């Protein structure tokens, strides 16, 4: 069993692996995950950003158990929280918690205001608009002619346009907030660069929220402001912080899944042919691609509020925990032959790509619709789509909290 180290202590043991671990193949989790699931489902690693130890939880069963446990906290201000970004100390003291980092009852209250914005019914009503946006972007690709970078032409553009419309953010500002967002998702920047990106985005959103408080529109931020006037649960800074989470979370993850999903299908032509032949397979294909890539592997970081036992291992109060979605989604006991992409996989919907428990992704219905429409429309309208460069030349986001590909040159 791995030796216990207090949360604030830097372990001297060279045996502890570093985290994050890199994927050796762009389509597979780090190889160490399978070894850990089999031999040591709850083990320790050293966080590269802080040099501190944290517990890695790797099986589907135990990841669900941790994410559903009220004795763990999402509060990133707590000592021992396993930070994966170089957040400056003074900023950590001052930072306002986002929905992702809140515990009940604050989390419950804010989520209650947001859930109606993302119901399945509201998302179905949005489908025609998403279809229009996707068609317009593909029109532009076809007019330009190949090769084009699918990340810039489609993967970033579609979710950015959709989330801008939902939030009431002027789309012409999106190049700037995408730049800030990319910095905020990067493990490898300095604490000063991270802090500057957050402050710049918050300054922009502060002005936007102020304008909506004076003149509300028909958008998510305005409706949140109106509800909050009737039953106050948040101050101005809370609303700015909520808007940042929605803006960054609403496009960063979906954009990466669009490009990776397209790449995954191009590299598995028999799976792509099946989807092209039978569009009814699309919803299942989306679930399987979400499982297969599991792009937000450790975005579900937690810290123990009291001693808890997971698989016979005692995690002490104040120690950081990383329940690894990518490992859980490749657990052989739940997903037979997990490293194979199988769009007909019956158990694909058991994936934890959107997390689990009270913090499960609030925008998952929106993400599913965007992915389904993009994959279906792209391969229907450009059936001869193919990579314009060898797979080996693609640059993957190994350094980011959300996995993806920097550029995806395609032609037809």
TrEMBL record:
Keywords: Heme, Iron, Metal-binding, Monooxygenase, Oxidoreductase. Gene3D superfamilies: Cytochrome P450 (1.10.630.10). Residues 1-24 are annotated as: Disordered. It comes from the Bacteria. Pfam families: p450 (PF00067). One of its GO terms (molecular function) is iron ion binding. PROSITE patterns: CYTOCHROME_P450 (PS00086). Belongs to the cytochrome P450 family. This is Cytochrome P450. The lineage of its organism: Bacteria, Bacillati, Actinomycetota, Actinomycetes, Kitasatosporales.
């Amino acid at each position: 069993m791995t030796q216990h180290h207090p949360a604030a202590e830097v372990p001297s043991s060279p045996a502890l692996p570093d985290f994050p671990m890199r994927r050796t193949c762009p389509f597979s989790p780090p190889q160490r995950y399978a070894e850990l699931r089999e031999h040591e489902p709850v083990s320790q690693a050293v966080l590269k950003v802080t040099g501190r130890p944290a517990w890695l939880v790797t099986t589907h069963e135990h990841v669900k158990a941790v994410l559903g446990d009220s004795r763990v906290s999402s509060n990133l201000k707590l000592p021992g929280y396993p930070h994966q970004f170089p957040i400056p100390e003074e900023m950590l003291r001052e930072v306002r918690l986002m929905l992702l980092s809140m515990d009940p009852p604050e989390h419950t209250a804010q989520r209650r205001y947001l859930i109606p914005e993302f119901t399945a019914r509201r998302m179905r009503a949005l489908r025609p608009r998403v279809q229009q946006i996707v068609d317009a972007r593909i029109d532009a690709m076809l007019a330009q002619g190949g090769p084009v970078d699918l990340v810039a032409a489609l993967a970033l553009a579609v979710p950015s346009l959709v989330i801008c419309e939902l939030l009431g953010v002027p789309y012409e500002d999106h190049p700037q907030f995408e730049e800030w967002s990319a910095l905020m998702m990067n493990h490898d920047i300095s604490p000063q660069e991270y802090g500057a990106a957050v402050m710049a985005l918050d300054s922009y959103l502060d002005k936007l929220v102020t304008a909506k408080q004076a003149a509300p529109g028909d958008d998510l931020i305005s409706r949140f402001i109106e509800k909050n006037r009737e039953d106050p649960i948040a101050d101005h800074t809370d609303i700015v912080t909520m808007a940042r989470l929605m803006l960054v979370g609403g496009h960063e993850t979906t954009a990466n899944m669009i490009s990776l999903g397209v790449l995954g299908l191009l590299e598995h032509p028999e799976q792509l042919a099946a989807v092209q032949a039978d569009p009814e397979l699309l919803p299942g294909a989306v679930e399987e691609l979400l499982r297969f890539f599991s792009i937000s592997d450790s975005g579900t970081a937690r810290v123990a509020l009291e001693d808890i036992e997971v698989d016979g291992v005692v995690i002490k109060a104040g120690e950081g925990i990383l329940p690894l979605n990518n490992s859980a989604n490749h657990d052989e006991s739940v997903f037979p032959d997990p490293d194979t992409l199988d769009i007909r996989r019956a158990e694909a919907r058991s994936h934890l790509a959107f997390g689990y428990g009270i913090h499960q992704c609030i925008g998952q219905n929106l993400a599913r619709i965007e992915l389904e429409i993009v994959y279906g429309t792209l391969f229907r309208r450009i059936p001869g789509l193919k990579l314009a460069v060898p797979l080996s030349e693609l640059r993957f986001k190994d350094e980011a909290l959300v996995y993806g590909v920097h550029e995806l040159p395609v032609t037809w």
